[in-house]
């Protein structure tokens, strides 16, 4: 028994002797790991699909690490994603409709990970990715020249305004998701500047998708505008006076009756946040115990 205790003490001392705490900060840019259908581009002659991921964009991480020994370690990372615009609808048909609708991700995440050092320079890490906050934001700018497109009635004819008049609608809608669980993995190269400071660069994969929970209109306004840009009717529709087909808040559910007529309920869907990224950062290592 005494021999086993001495062996355990020796193992703890040996591990503690090489254990180190460190903190690192990095920034980078990520691209979609797999293009998923996001929206469409429409002109008078063709319609084109657009692909992407809400995980595309600028990101930053702050990681706190503990080197158990010369090979293995653990990290806890805090990350933020400032996603790039993804095209949802790009319609450009002059004197009919011009729409610019984009969506982008804004997300906060927690990354518990294990690290492995191949040698003094190359390392890898793998762990879980939990998005704990944020939203997907849709921003829409729509110019509609038609009052009744099916019957060819224009805004000018319906409202007895000069030719070329249109409605100009702008709104922002915030989408919120349920707490997702994904994976993160990276390979990196570290270059020591001194005993405590080092630079690193790494290739990182994040695999995660978010299931929508609800969405809410944050802003909404529709003006009637003349061809020369003069506003003929300001605030025709607002958040307090939404047109048919729009609701302030939408809830996403897994099951919906075929007879449902409530526009505030829609079937849920998963939206992609997966990406490949390049990060560059700096690490400060505290003195060994």
TrEMBL record:
Signal peptide (UniProt feature, chain positions): 1-19
InterPro entries: OMP/PagP_B-barrel
Top-level taxon: Bacteria
Keyword Signal found: yes
Alphabetic keyword roster: Signal
Name of the protein in question: Outer membrane beta-barrel protein
UniProt source species: Lutibacter aestuarii
């Amino acid at each position: 028994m005494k021999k086993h205790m001495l062996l355990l003490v020796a193992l703890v001392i040996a591990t503690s002797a090489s254990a180190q705490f460190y903190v690192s900060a990095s920034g980078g840019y990520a691209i979609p790991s797999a293009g998923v259908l996001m929206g469409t581009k429409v002109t008078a002659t063709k319609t084109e699909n657009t692909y992407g991921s809400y995980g595309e964009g600028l990101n930053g991480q702050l990681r706190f690490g503990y080197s158990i020994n010369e090979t293995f370690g653990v990290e806890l990372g805090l990350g933020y994603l400032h996603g790039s615009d993804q095209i949802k609808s790009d319609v450009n048909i002059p004197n009919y409709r011009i729409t610019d609708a984009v969506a982008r991700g804004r997300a906060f995440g927690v990354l518990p990970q294990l690290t492995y050092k191949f040698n003094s320079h190359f390392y890898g890490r793998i762990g879980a990715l939990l998005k704990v906050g944020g939203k997907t934001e849709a921003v829409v700018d729509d110019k509609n020249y038609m009052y009744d497109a099916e019957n060819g009635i224009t805004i000018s004819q319906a409202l007895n305004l000069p030719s070329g008049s249109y409605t100009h609608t702008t709104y922002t809608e915030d989408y919120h998701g349920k707490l997702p669980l994904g994976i993160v993995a990276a390979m990196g190269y570290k270059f020591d500047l001194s005993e405590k400071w080092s630079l690193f660069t790494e290739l990182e994969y994040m695999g995660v998708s978010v299931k929508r929970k609800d969405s809410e209109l944050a802003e909404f306004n529709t003006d009637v505008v003349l061809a020369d840009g003069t506003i003929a009717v300001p605030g025709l529709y607002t958040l307090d006076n939404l047109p048919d087909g729009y609701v302030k808040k939408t809830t996403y559910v897994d099951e919906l009756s075929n007879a449902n007529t409530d526009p505030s309920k829609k079937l849920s869907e998963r939206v992609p946040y997966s990406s490949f990224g390049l990060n560059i950062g700096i690490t400060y290592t505290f003195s060994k115990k």
